[in-house]
Amino acid sequence: MRYLGYALDRNDVPRGKDIKNSNDAELVAHVARAGAELGADIIKTNYTGDFDTFRNVVEGCPAPVVMAGGPKTNTDEEFLEMVRGSIDAGGRGVAIGEMFSSTTTQRP
Q1: CB within 8 A of 98, min separation 6: which ones?
Q2: Which end of the chain is more exposed for a tag (fewer CB within 10 A), N or C?
Q3: 44: left (phi over 0), alpha (psi -120 to 50) or beta
Q4: Which helix (H) or strand (E) segment is 27 a member of?
């Protein structure tokens, strides 16, 4: 799509009947790398749950990585800590919506 002036992003997350944990660091790294090798300009994938393993995902992927989800959180603060971890690990941003609005924190 670059030849048309558009960036191609892919939502690459581990899925399937045999996947027990879609945040598994090794699986996330594998699908992120595969998406980039298939030509994606930006990879949206799950946060692995910790800084070090997500850094491995980012470093192993030739395309920029954006956090598109991750382990469920109970509060806005926990969620924002996860976002901070993904950025500190080298992630280029976040693509969120439902996940943020599904925390249990009451909002006015």
Answers
A1: none
A2: C
A3: beta
A4: helix 25-37
Cα–chain center distance at 72? 13
Tell how far CA 46 is from the center of its chain: 3
Give the separation between CA 96 and CA 108, rounded to whole angstroms: 20
pTM of the model: 0.81
Distance CA 69, CA 98 (A): 9
**Strands (DSSP E) found in the chain:** 9-11, 42-46, 65-69, 93-94
Q: pLDDT (tens digit, 9 = 90+) per residue, 85-101?
A: 999 999 999 988 765 55
